[in-house]
TrEMBL record, chains A, B:
It comes from Clostridium aestuarii. Ferredoxins are iron-sulfur proteins that transfer electrons in a wide variety of metabolic reactions. InterPro entries: 4Fe4S_Fe-S-bd (IPR017896), 4Fe4S_Fe_S_CS (IPR017900), PSI_iron-sulfur_center (IPR050157), Pyridox_Oxase_N (IPR011576), Split_barrel_FMN-bd (IPR012349). Transmembrane segments: none annotated. Keywords: 4Fe-4S, Iron, Iron-sulfur, Metal-binding. Residues 142-168, 169-198 form the 4Fe-4S ferredoxin-type domain. This is Ferredoxin. Gene3D superfamilies: 3.30.70.20, Electron Transport, Fmn-binding Protein, Chain A (2.30.110.10). PROSITE patterns: 4FE4S_FER_1, 4FE4S_FER_2.
């Protein structure tokens, strides 16, 4: 989890998604600080983004580095006291170009206090993915899975584009390699395949 | 608008935000095709992302290039016929690595049919932004504005971190330079400043 947060801090400019009137909104912003295994951000009180977070304090963020490794985190946010604005300016001196001197007063800092996430490596075939949670949230396992209705016919294995399915008394899906495309689910003649929940 | 779409196609891997149970979800994916001023994408029927789009066919996307130019687009999507899956594979041959041969059958293509967007250049101070709409949507103007209650006291001008406010009989805000931080709004003693609507 800490690695995932530092990854986001390193690539820094990532996408931040919120909800307004039931519709998605997204913009590029920076992960400003990682401290005590928490992610800190800034926004200005006049922005639609700020109002969205006040009304619906849930945030999803994603970033990809130059090696096609993706980190996604989604969780609950809380606004934090103003000392974090100063801390963030110390850690991100270029903020002074946008908000010189006292102009930083219009900014508020907030923090993702709990949530779930995933590291996803698209540079390899099969892909690799790993989920994590923090702050008391519990993450859903990734990937499709196979239940006891399986008759080991092998149809799912040949349907999988990732070779993520292996033979056994009943077949098994390697959740770290599953793209969640659902081709095994559509192919299985025995309803033995269970879809994953979202992140 | 066409420039904005081609920008997204060129940087290709951008963030796609959806809504599930009122909460934001976001992932990195590719803009697969720009044709007739429409944006085309793919997803697999088994993914949570697909279910989110079926239940709530609104999508927000954002990408930033190496020069810190950002394009955001948000709008309504529709699933399109399967010929687009083949068209997309022709335009994006690396898709064959993930979904070789007939395995592409699990994919469905969709299109953003109408929406609004913004080009945002963060590499310059003051920033520059420009909005657009397509397919019949009407975009809200960006930026704060000043109404006739203005007494030309100049407080807003000195509050603005972007020097986006100029003097006249009543003061004016250059909406292409406005960060929407709201500092002028908080500073104005006459309630003469009007907040923008979201994108």
């Amino acid at each position: 989890m800490k690695d995932a947060f530092n990854f986001l801090r390193k690539i820094k400019s990532v996408a931040f998604a919120t909800v307004e009137n039931g519709k998605p909104c997204v913009r590029i912003a920076d992960v400003m600080l990682v401290e005590d295994d928490k992610l800190y951000f800034l926004t200005a009180r006049g922005k639609p983004y700020y109002k969205q977070l006040k009304e619906n304090p849930h945030l999803a963020i994603v970033g990809m580095d130059e090696n096609y490794v993706t980190v996604r985190v989604t969780g609950d946010i809380e606004f934090v006291d103003r000392s974090y604005v100063d801390k963030i300016f110390e850690a991100n001196p270029m903020m002074n170009d946008l908000y010189p001197g006292e102009k930083r007063e219009i900014l508020d800092a907030f923090c993702m206090i709990r949530g779930v996430g995933e590291i996803f490596d698209l540079s390899v075939v099969p892909i690799e993915r790993q989920r994590f949670d923090f702050g008391g949230s519990v993450v859903n396992p990734s990937g499709y899975s196979i239940n006891e209705k399986c008759v080991a016919c092998g149809i799912c294995k040949s349907a999988c584009p990732m070779n993520a399915i292996s033979e056994d008394s009943i077949y098994k899906i390697d959740s770290t390699k599953c793209l969640e495309c659902g081709r095994c689910f559509e192919a299985c003649p025995n309803n033995a395949i269970i879809p994953p929940l979202g992140l």
